[in-house]
Amino acid sequence: MTGDARKTAEGLAYLSGFGNEHASEAVPGALPEGRNAPQRAPLGLYAEQLSGSAFTEPRAHNRRSWLYRIRPSAAHPAFTHTHNGWIRTAPFAESVPDPNRLRWNPLPEPTDGTDFLAGLWTLGGNGDAAQRSGMAVHLYHANASMDRVFSDADGELLIVPERGGLLLRTEFGLLGVEPGEVALIPRGVRFRVELLDAAPDGTAAPSARGYVCENYGAPFRLPDLGPIGANGLANARDFRAPVAAYEDVEGPVEVVNKFCGNLWTATYDHSPLDVVAWHGNHVPYVYDLRRFNVIGSISYDHPDPSIFTVLTAPSDTPGLAGVDFVVFAPRWLVGEDTFRPPYFHRNVMSEYMGLIEGAYDAKAEGFVPGGGSLHNMMSAHGPDQETFDRASAAELRPQKIDDGLAFMFETRWPVTLTQHAAGADHLQRHYDDVWRGLERHFRPAP
Ligand SMILES: O=C(O)Cc1cc(O)ccc1O
Ligand SMILES: [Fe+2]
């Protein structure tokens, strides 16, 4: 069930644009013309709608796709409850919400035969999946491709690889996603995660690793640009959706469905990745973070990191995100008479940060690729002592920050940890010490 022997993202075709009404057919004539549900769909296919928003939501936010498939999704046996592995779901009540600054090293290497789903490890989250609000932070590590198929009724999945490329076989077609890129699987869309080859000779990467934001709330969208104008930040045309590609497989296929926090499994007698044509706007996509158009201060002061928002999942309160996905991409710093790294701060929003490669400009050491930090609501944080000392004394020439790629999931509610994250061996025990050496410099008299 894992398809081609060699797994590479080369040569995959894509459709360009964010939120578009895309249309694609893997077989000419598979997509009906002029209507969604003809009496008999072309080529003997079944027509089916997948709704990602209520039917009646405003047109600008309405999301649905029409799928033309070999079998309707309804043709499946009953799901039975299975074990949840390391996956947990909001509401999170396993641990006492922690006001401390917390930082983790990367997950340990997975045991042999760990696929993406078995290697999905929930750090924590907020809200309530059944109420369709809030989010969860997960990490993953995997050294095997999935044979099974997964779908998440609880939310959309923003996948942020840190190590190893992934091939996502979805109902809508194939997406390749490498470290430095992100992929989004919309709520309810079925997919399988396979590991891309690390080398052209077909050698698979020893393991893949990364982060996942599970967004239970309103789907991620591009932020408004306000006075920035019509262009900039993540440009819509750089988002890529797959072209239709289908599996025509008869035989047992395990399908795992995450529903209100639990995993349910059923063995289908065919592959549900059997969509021959589709059209609509509830679609998976990939985005290369290096395409992000970074906008910042060209005069003085360090702007708030909202300027680096790639995608925002709005709440019911204007300007208040359920979760923002923010990237700290390569950029020039030119601020005059300015402390250039991130400032000291306390924030009503809660900040989970991860590192895709290199280093992050607020932390001299200890924040490593594959690791992560959590600065919950109002916890005091900012540059570590070494960064503060260096930046306070630095000569303010134009400076290129191009030695790392960090990101943040910034959310409106505190993140409560799972028990396994709160007690993890890879939780750093002395993170507070990075701010310990910040001495007083106050001199009341000049
Ligand atoms: O805490 C962090 O490193 C993230 C962050 C970056 C920044 O440039 C300003 C504020 C902020 O929370
Ligand atoms: Fe912060």
Looking at this protein, list some descriptive labels.
446 residues, mainly beta, Jelly Rolls, 2 domains, 7-stranded antiparallel sheet, 6-stranded antiparallel sheet, 3% helix, globular, binds 2-(3,6-dihydroxyphenyl)acetic acid, binds fe (ii) ion
Give the SSE map:
Layout: E1 14-16, E2 22-25, E3 46-51, E4 64-69, E5 80-81, E6 102-104, E7 120-128, E8 133-142, E9 149-152, E10 156-163, E11 166-170, E12 173-177, E13 181-185, E14 191-195, E15 208-215, E16 240-242, E17 250-259, E18 262-270, E19 275-280, E20 285-288, E21 309-314, E22 321-328, E23 331-333, E24 350-358, E25 372-375, H1 385-393, E26 399-401, E27 404-411, E28 416-417, H2 419-422
Parallel strand pairs: 9-17
Antiparallel strand pairs: 1-16, 2-19, 3-4, 4-19, 5-18, 6-25, 7-8, 7-28, 8-15, 10-13, 10-15, 11-12, 11-14, 13-20, 17-18, 21-22, 22-27, 23-26, 24-25, 24-27
The structure holds 2-(3,6-dihydroxyphenyl)acetic acid and fe (ii) ion (FE2).
The site of fe (ii) ion has 5 residues, from loops.
Element-by-element helix/strand order: EEEEEEEEEEEEEEEEEEEEEEEEEHEEEH
Query: What name is given to the CATH topology of the largest domain?
Result: Jelly Rolls
Assigned CATH superfamily of the largest domain: Jelly Rolls
Strand order of the largest sheet: 20-13-10-15-8-7-28
Number of strands: 28
- The residue-averaged pLDDT reads 95
Portion in beta strands: 35-45%
**Oligomeric state of the chains in view:** single chain
**Stretches where pLDDT falls below 50 for ≥5 residues?**
none
The largest sheet is:
7 strands, antiparallel
Count of DSSP-assigned helices: 2
- How many domains in all? 2
Structural class estimated from helices and strands:
mainly beta
Just give the CATH class of the largest domain.
Mainly Beta
Broad shape? globular
C-alpha Rg (nearest Å): 23 Å
Q: Architecture of the largest domain, CATH level 2?
A: Sandwich
Tell me roughly what share of residues is in helical segments: under 10%
Enumerate the distinct ligands. Answer: 2-(3,6-dihydroxyphenyl)acetic acid, fe (ii) ion
Report, as a whole number of angstroms, the end-to-end distance. Answer: 74 Å
Keywords: Dioxygenase, Iron, Metal-binding, Oxidoreductase, Phenylalanine catabolism, Tyrosine catabolism
Binding site for Fe cation: 345, 351, 381
Cofactor: Fe cation
InterPro entries: HgmA_C, HgmA_N, Homogentis_dOase, Homogentis_dOase_bac, RmlC-like_jellyroll, RmlC_Cupin_sf
